């Protein structure tokens, strides 16, 4: 459906990458889905109905040929910790970048925003966390 939409709207600046964002590339993981369009690579996030094998890729792998982006918006339904780990090169090398990350999911009793904030600060990002756990980080 995405490829069809890109084609019919003649969107030449979009490249779909049929992979799941993770901390490394070329791993096969199970993608859990439910009947209510919920989905995650982390089984504890949803009550899964279906399990689909997917290939992974890291943000660093995607961006190695594109350079530093101005903004990364990351919502991967509970796998944000792994996704941030898979963008360490991007985080450390890119200046004047903004991040918007869904940090409201919980892992082992901790909110994801609390887990990833130290990693972002180590890469010289300023970090703001909203009441619900949304993360906005920037580097100037």
Write up what this structure looks like.
With 140 residues, the chain is of the alpha+beta class. The chain has one domain (20-138): Rossmann fold, CATH 3.40.50.150. 25% of the residues lie in helices and 27% in strands. The protein is built from 5 helices and 10 strands, in the order H-E-E-E-E-H-E-H-H-E-E-E-H-E-E. The strands form 3 sheets. The protein has a 4-stranded mixed beta sheet with strand order 1-4-2-3. A 4-stranded mixed beta sheet has the order 5-6-10-9, covered by helices on one side. The chain is globular and about 40 Å long.
Low-confidence segments, given as residue ranges, are none
| Total count of helical runs of at least 4 residues | 5
N→C terminal distance: 37 Å
Please give the largest β-sheet: 4 strands, mixed
Oligomer: single chain
Spatial strand sequence of the major β-sheet? 1-4-2-3
Structural class comes to alpha+beta
Strand content: 25-35%
